[in-house]
Amino acid sequence: MIAALIGLPLLGAVVLLLGGRRTNAWGHLLAVVMSASSFFIAAMLFMQMVGKPEEEREIGQFLFDWIAVGAFQIPFGFYLDQLAIVFVLLITGVGTLIHIYSIGYMAHDPNRRQFFGYLNLFIASMLLLVLADNYFLLYLGWESVGLASYLLISFYQQKPSAAAAGKKAFIVNRVGDVGLALAILLMFVTFGTLSFEGVAAGAGLAAPTTVTWIGLALLLAACGKSAQFPLQSWLLDAMEGPTPVSALIHAATMVTAGVYLIVRAHAIFDLSETARTAVVIVGAITLLLGAFIGTAKDDIKKGLAGSTMSQIGYMILAAGLGPVGYVFAIFHLLTHGMFKAGLFLGAGSVMHGMHDDVNMRHYGALRTMMKVTYATFALGFLAIIGVPPFAGFWSKDEIIHAAFGQNLFIGLATLLGAGVTAFYMTRMMAMTFFGEARWEQDVKPHESPAVMTIPMIVLALGSAFGGMAMLFIGDIEHWLEPVTGFAYPQNSVSKAVLIPITLAVILGGAGYAWLCYGRRPIPVDAPTNVSLLTKAARADAYGDAINESLFMRPGQYLTRSLTWFDAKAIDGFVGGIAAAVGGLSARSRRLQNGYVRSYALTMFGGATLIALILLLVRL
After folding, report:
1. Residues paired with residue 134 on neighbouring β-strands, in sequence order
2. Domain that holds residue 614
3. Is the pLDDT at 543 greater than 90, yes or no?
4. 80 with 48: CB under 8 angstroms?
5. pLDDT at residue 417 above 90?
6. Is the pTM of this model over 0.85?
7. Which end of the chain has fewer CB atoms at under 10 Å, N or C?
8. Residues 6+ apart with CB under 8 A from 209
């Protein structure tokens, strides 16, 4: 059963990518069926787990011995527990809705069959990542996700910007992948095994320094895959892919992999305060950096991309809090998967009705033209800013509460992030759905077809009620506790005090955005006379410029220097030897001219020389 979860979408990908044009007519339907079938199997497995006692909910499935070289024994097997099943349900559930939405969104694309093949491959890769029973097999899924993301981000490869975005995502993720590879090597050398259970059991016996280095290497891997500081630069460029790709990568799959990795390896982080502190710092920086970038973006997809950075930052920060935050990191990951997927699909619906225009300055007043899109987007908006009783309120406020229990400054960072989130999301709502119409005369905004709006409605319902359902019905805290552990925050600010403060900050951020963008005319062209902070936010906080100065330019100079050294020194030395040998050979050939008289003269000269030497010796 577990193998079928991965096997079905993988089979769909193989059929669509190798079947050729013969699958064009029905390929998209096959992809939807394969993804939906995995979701139904996941739902059945979940119901089976719910019906079992807590200690019997873990399910393993061994397939075969994958690698057997001396002590390096790696099985190919799967492991399903309470942590894995919630990821599987999110990946297959939200993934299937995105598949259905894509039927309408990609209806006129000549490469639609190929696109759906990549979607199936992405789902299979992500499922392999979260279902692996050891870190080496997890690495295989990790790299497969990187490949699938490259194919999807650069899907419109005829556009130079899309091709560059795909390469950028691939290369930046390779930097993070070095961290995972190093962590795996350290684990095997230290523990003699790469199974989750073996590493967890041996972590307490390892040297503290070794455990810390493993944790920091895992954090580097998480930074790459989840677009956390300082490896966040690829995420905004990834918006070059089709909008369903943005929803899939940014909501339910790729960017959540880093959070999963840290929580799955909690036995390592529980033993290293240094590693946990580093995780918290990275999360805090990223949640504020992503929110800051989102405040000045006019591209609706890039605004949501900055939001994703920020929200994943909340999750990473929560995971760094240890047993106090593991559960809340996953809780917010699940609610975020619903409302962020809904927001991205809503953005795609707006683009569909606006002839693929992504500039919010060309929108305005769309609430009357696209009522379903407006209503579903509004529910996602209320969920992400944390208005009760919507999903984000229950999960994000738990992180804020836990952060204040850990450290005042970390708590203030999460609170500030909530206010900035309310600002940029209200700005997005005002520029898109309110105010005066700013679109050109030949543009006729219209609602998307049902195949696109139905998935948006389902996700909007999840944004509205998903948080309450998971907290009060699903009891997410106690469901994950056997796997991650759980501890209530100690010495924290009372929720009765903190919740009103948080809501006041949210209302302040939203109110200020409304005054700036809801009550004033919005110019069609972005103002150029802006503050330095606005310029920095528009330039993605100069992330690309910093990377170019620190890494690209020095790399170019090093490459040019090595090229010069190779051409002048290495090639010059080799060429000099060849020239010397050639010159000596040319001169030696003159002695072999074929004339007998020359040879006789040479022999006579040699004999004379020998005779003179003997004469001198006797004297």
Report:
1. 195
2. 564-618
3. no
4. no
5. yes
6. yes
7. C
8. none
